Amino acid sequence: MDKEIEIKFLLGDPIGYRQRLIKQAAELVDKRVFELNLRFDTAGKTLTQSGQVLRLRKDRRARITYKRDGHLENDVLVRTELETEVADFEVMRRVLEALGYEVFTVYEKYRETFTLDGVTVSIDEMPYGAFTELEGPSASQIHDVAKKLGLRWEKGIPSSYIVMFEQLKERLGLKMSDLSFEAFEGIAVSPEDFGVETAD
Is residue 157 within 8 Å of 167, Cβ to Cβ? Predict the structure, then answer.
């Protein structure tokens, strides 16, 4: 089965970080694009409770993704990941709903994607801040690229955006269910609210 090996970092200066990527001759593989993600689960949240993820994503294409067995290895998040492209986002959504799954969270982001030394480097604009995600074939390769980009490894976040969202809601007493730009309009979020520091 396919493995996802990744780590995220909170950015204080995403523009400066992007310039560093260009300076290091990173290859732009996907221009900035809006991304819509639907997280599915059963009514009793059995997938979430057992550490499984079922996601339908739409950007320039549509993909369905299944993840499980999330654990830490050498400071990075490692999960089994199965993903395939689907022809029609709305039809796939209806199929999942017909099977008894329902959307429990919608989350949005803008993403720009590069590759550097075999590692996929994304710059993600989330409703609650700017992040970079490094995903690669091994923790050591990811570590080397992070070092090359001047990221402080000890500030890495081996977690998902949804987990961060849930932690943020708990800390700030937020009640929204969707991680959308509209839901966060007018809400100021600081690194302290995440319990993390910027890494750049």
Answer: no
Residue 7 · residue 134 · CB < 8 Å = yes
Enclosing domain of residue 160: 3-194
Query: Do 63 and 85 meet the contact criterion of CB atoms below 8 Å apart?
Result: yes
Task: Please report, for the domain that includes residue 188, its CATH number.
Answer: 2.40.320.10
Residue-wise pLDDT tens digits, 31-90? 999 999 999 999 999 999 999 999 999 999 999 999 998 899 999 999 999 999 999 999
SS (H, E, C) the chain: CCEEEEEEEECCCHHHHHHHHHHCCCEEEEEEEEEEEEEEECCCCHHHHCCCEEEEEECCCEEEEEEEEEEEECCEEEEEEEEEEECCHHHHHHHHHHCCCEEEEEEEEEEEEEEECCEEEEEEEECCEEEEEEECCCHHHHHHHHHHCCCCHHHCECCCHHHHHHHHHHHHCCCCCCECCCCCCCCCCCHHHHCCCCCC
The answer, as to whether pTM is greater than 0.70, is yes
